From TrEMBL:
Belongs to the threonine synthase family. It comes from the Bacteria. Residues 2-80 form the Threonine synthase N-terminal domain. One of its GO terms (molecular function) is threonine synthase activity. Residues 97-332 form the Tryptophan synthase beta chain-like PALP domain. This is Threonine synthase. Pathway: Amino-acid biosynthesis; L-threonine biosynthesis; L-threonine from L-aspartate: step 5/5. The keyword RNA-binding does not apply. Pfam families: PALP, THR4_C, Thr_synth_N. Its EC number is 4.2.3.1. Keywords: Amino-acid biosynthesis, Lyase, Pyridoxal phosphate, Threonine biosynthesis.
Length: 462
């Protein structure tokens, strides 16, 4: 299995090389040269299997010969052993033909744990072979950072630097990043928004001198391994509702487009997904792009679903690559236009292709609060604000095909927003009971590439 860049001008890599590389050297994102197909029989055989076995069967064709079957099975087993639910990703019914896929039973209470726990194990195995150190730099609007720190803290051979937008993550998210005591993790509060954090991370990858000298690696969903791990729960959820004999649709609370792109990959592999519905908050660039054909940034507006406060949605590039017939030069041109003018028009052919798979909707702040209140009153289920954005949009797309909305985080990560909607503060699990009394360790940084690079160099030299 080979991996190619969405901009068509970077070296072709194997799975483990693509994983350790992160962003391609032409600025693009790695994708598999071909998407492996699963037959109806392969998919039917997943029904009733445990999550780990499903994960092995779905991901195995993407790995090539980077790991033996036994190594890969052991890696998967270790990755999900710490999850707080036997099913790992349980499905609960929210209403007639509407289901919630609970993805918040991992160690940091968000869907990011599914991928981050796995790539923590994959990195460890790869680094042990190579005997080298790497420097991971990541950008977060709250959840990727805490999941990455949890997965990599204390790991031999790895330093982790996480840039988060100062004052724009929830207190639980911030404390998950700033309270671990391990000296290989570094929480950096940047004066700016998530897009600034993500742009500085990409700048570091595009500064080859810096990139090579610190052996830079990335754990954002620019890393293909992140997306791959998320493909699995689309299969586990769909087969438990009768796939491949019964199609399903998914609604996905969306920001950086990584999670929904994983659903797109599952569909391309043969999983009968009728529609993938993009649910955005008031930062609705993806919804507007689908509706109008123009991808236009507008500046981030802070919301009660802060992890989705994103305008430059990294993985949309992967979807554009396919929609433009895998024409890397065309994608490179769009991305240059985005950098220079803040937007671009999607060609008619490409927007038609995207609309065959994706629908979209936007939930306002009031609609999000009302959805949290409505779901609680009707079912007793407490939704996190991101999940509520998904549920609100999903409710407008219900039909004869079962709809599965991804519940992307635990409500206790966003107690203020939940309390404002239902008057109750959801409790953190007992293992996190002391989160609010642990001392914090954080470094404030300006939105300045050179300053951040020298801080990284200094810290890894000590
Ligand atoms: C809780 C939560 N929901 C939804 C999203 C959006 O996911 P994606 O960025 O993969 O579109 C995020 C951030 O990634 C998140 O943390
Ligand atoms: N919502 C994310 C933003 C980063 O997305 P990623 O999936 O590319 O890592 C977060 O919580 O940090």
């Amino acid at each position: 299995m080979k991996y190619i860049s969405t901009r068509g001008a970077a070296p072709v890599l194997t799975f483990d090389q693509a994983m350790m590389t992160g962003l391609a050297r032409d600025g693009g994102l790695y994708v598999p040269e071909t998407i492996p197909a699963m037959t109806q029989t392969d998919i039917a055989a997943l029904a009733g299997l445990g999550y780990e076995e499903t994960a092995f069967r779905v991901m195995r064709p993407f790995i090539g010969d980077c790991f033996t079957d036994q190594e890969f099975q052991d890696i998967i087993a270790r990755a999900y052993a710490g999850f707080g639910h036997a099913a790992r990703a349980p499905l609960v019914q929210l209403g007639p033909n509407h289901f919630l896929l609970e993805l918040f039973h991992g160690p940091t209470l968000a869907f990011k744990d599914f991928a981050m726990q796995l790539i923590g194990q994959l990195f460890q195995a790869a680094l042990q072979r190579q005997g080298e150190r790497v420097t991971i730099v990541g950008a977060t609007s709250g959840d990727t950072g805490s999941a990455a720190i949890e997965a990599f803290r204390g790991l031999e051979g790895v330093d982790v630097f996480i840039l988060f937008p100062d004052g724009r993550v929830s207190e639980v998210q911030r404390r998950q990043m700033t309270t671990p005591v391990e000296t290989n993790v570094h929480a950096l509060a940047l004066a700016g928004d998530f897009d600034d954090c993500q742009a500085r991370v990409k700048d570091m990858f595009n500064d080859f001198d810096f990139r090579d000298s610190v052996r830079l690696a990335g754990v954002n969903s620019i890393n293909w391994a992140r997306v791959l791990a998320q493909v699995v729960y689309y299969f586990s959820a769909a087969t438990s509702l009768g796939a491949p004999h019964r199609p399903v649709s998914f609604t996905v609370p969306t920001g950086n487009f990584g999670d929904i792109f994983a659903g797109y990959v599952a569909r391309r592999m043969g999983l009968p997904i009728e529609r993938l519905v993009i649910a955005t908050n008031q930062n609705d660039i993806l919804h507007r792009a689908l509706k109008t054909g123009r991808y236009q940034t507008e500046g981030v507006r802070p919301s009660i679903s802060p992890s989705m406060d994103i305008q430059v949605s990294s993985n949309f590039e992967r979807a554009l690559f396919d929609a433009y017939g895998r024409d890397g030069a065309a994608v490179a041109q769009l991305m240059q236009e985005l950098r220079q003018t803040g937007g671009f028009r999607i060609s008619q052919g490409a927007i038609d292709v995207l609309r065959e798979t994706f629908l979209s909707g936007r939930a306002s702040e009031d609609e999000t609060r009302a959805t949290i209140a409505g779901a609680f009153a009707a079912t007793g289920e407490i939704l996190c604000p991101h999940t509520a954005v998904g549920v609100n949009v999903a409710e407008r797309h219900l039909g004869p095909v079962p709809m599965i909305t991804l519940a992307t985080a635990h409500p206790a990560k966003f107690p203020d927003a939940v309390e404002a909607a239902i008057g109750l503060r959801p409790a953190l699990p007992p293992r996190m009971a002391d989160l609010f009394v642990r001392p914090e360790r954080v470094t404030r940084v300006a939105n300045d590439l050179a300053g951040i690079e020298s801080l990284v160099r200094e810290r890894i030299a000590n």
